[in-house]
Amino acid sequence: GENVEQHPSTLSVQEGDSAVIKCTYSDSASNYFPWYKQELGKRPQLIIDIRSNVGEKKDQRIAVTLNKTAKHFSLHITETQPEDSAVYFCAALYVDSNYQLIWGAGTKLIIKP
Amino acid sequence: SAVISQKPSRDICQRGTSLTIQCQVDSQVTMMFWYRQQPGQSLTLIATANQGSEATYESGFVIDKFPISRPNLTFSTLTVSNMSPEDSSIYLCSVADSRAFFGQGTRLTVV
């Protein structure tokens, strides 16, 4: 079955620096890759997603890149701010199912003031 | 994006009892999902609930323990039956059209 690996599990960066979180997936047929941010005690919130027909997508300080050949995708956050502190989850769409997302284990991002 | 209302937001229950969690969506959606999330962990899919058909359960989850109803395209319930302390967790409903969105979650504590 589909598997998504996410690294690192914890990432601590200085405020203003960039953060990069990486995920790899196993199903070469996957064509949709969202990223969610989950603050403590709250629901996961979709922050950006990418489909397999593009290699990069940007939304202000957030960008996602996709390398289909290598089957990995990454979340890039630039000019990090304290409010970026949260757990981030990547996911990949499992094509053989009813829109079933396969989730990474999560990355706890800590922004140091 | 769909607006999802999930309730209760939290509950403390006695072991051996059951709790039903409700999820109401502001628009019609074909697919709804129920997840469990242990503290500090990722999301584990319990089952997929499509209107008009039986829910599809993932490995490790059974209908007798987690019965699901999906009476229409805007509503679903998940029941956690015969609860034990191991069922203490956060339960989340989710809907998907072209993107997936989540309810607020139900924090369940079984004592």
Descriptive keywords:
heterodimer; A: 113 residues; five-stranded antiparallel β-sheet; 0% helix; B: 111 residues; mainly beta; four-stranded antiparallel β-sheet
Describe the protein in words.
The complex is a heterodimer of chains A (113) and B (111). Chain A has 113 residues and is mainly β. Helices cover 0% and strands 58% of the residues of chain A. Chain A has strands at residues 4-7, 10-14, 19-25, 32-38, 45-51, 56-59, 62-67, 72-77, 86-94, 100-103, 107-112. In chain A, strands 2, 4, 5, 9, 10 and 11 form a six-stranded mixed β-sheet that branches. A five-stranded antiparallel β-sheet of chain A has the order 1-3-8-7-6, with no helix packed on it. In chain A, strand 7 (62-67) and strand 8 (72-77) form a beta hairpin. In chain A, 34% of the residues are buried. Chain B contains no helices and eleven strands. Chain B has strands spanning 4-7, 10-13, 19-25, 31-37, 44-50, 56-57, 68-72, 75-80, 89-96, 100-102, 106-110. In chain B, strands 2, 4, 5, 6, 9, 10 and 11 form a seven-stranded mixed β-sheet that branches. Chains A and B meet through strand 5 and strand 10 of A and strand 5 and strand 10 of B.
Summarize the structure.
The complex is a heterodimer of chains A (113) and B (111). Helices cover 0% and strands 58% of the residues of chain A. Chain A is mainly β and 113 residues long.
